[in-house]
Design a protein that fits this description.
alpha/beta, Rossmann fold, 6 strands
Length: 208
């Protein structure tokens, strides 16, 4: 089954390039294109793609606001030229499943789409380093009260998600099937009211 992707970018030439790269993969189908955030939200609700490849700076509605509106509708992979902390944290807090820079090569983009479509989170390496640095100096905090509502296994899964492990890596570490891991991750997100595994990692690190 193909991964159905909606591409949202206000530059027609950029959209065309992204579509060409994605359509070159046997397992990816571009089902729609959007030139602004409002159109991205409307098309995502209509077409129900597996993933929206979303730019940040767009007219009418920016990518971060569009991502927030699509919570629970589809996964969003942010792809942007702007490696700015305000955008990075804004996108991830809005519920983006990943954040990738436009200097990523074609193979990296296709791999990122496949990874997010499998239910894993993804952050550009340069962004990951800044996230780690942002939390490295913080003291260890008590788990938030909401975590008390998780089962012991779900807490283990949350801790693994916070370390940035993929579903396959969590399955190996906790000795369970990958499908079971995916179910646990979904339950954790649902119980904590979170939109993505990346958001769960931030939540766990902040302890709020």
């Amino acid at each position: 089954m193909s991964i159905r992707v909606l591409v949202a970018d206000d530059h027609a030439a950029v959209r065309a390039g992204l579509v060409m790269i994605l359509e070159g993969a046997d397992d990816i189908e571009v089902v729609g294109e959007a030139a602004d955030g409002e159109q991205a939200v409307a098309l995502a609700r209509e077409l129900k793609p597996d993933l929206v490849l979303m730019d940040i700076r767009m007219p009418r509605l920016d990518g971060i606001s569009a991502t927030r509106e699509l919570a629970g509708v589809t996964d969003v992979l942010i792809l942007t030229t702007f490696d700015i902390d305000e955008y990075v944290f804004g996108a991830l807090r809005a519920g983006a499943a990943g954040f990738l820079l436009k200097n990523t090569d074609a193979d990296g983009l296709v791999a990122a789409v496949r990874l997010v479509a499998r239910g894993d989170g993804l952050i550009s390496p340069s962004v990951t380093r800044r996230l780690i640095a942002a939390f490295a100096g913080q003291p260890v905090r008590r788990e938030p009260e909401e975590v008390e509502g998780l089962t012991p296994r779900e807490r283990e899964v949350l801790a693994c998600v916070a370390r940035g492990l993929s579903n396959a890596e969590i399955a190996r570490e906790l000795d369970m099937a990958e499908a079971t891991t995916k179910t646990h991750v979904s339950r954790v997100l649902g119980k904590l009211g979170l939109r993505s595994r990346v958001q769960a990692a931030i939540y766990y690190a902040e302890g709020t």
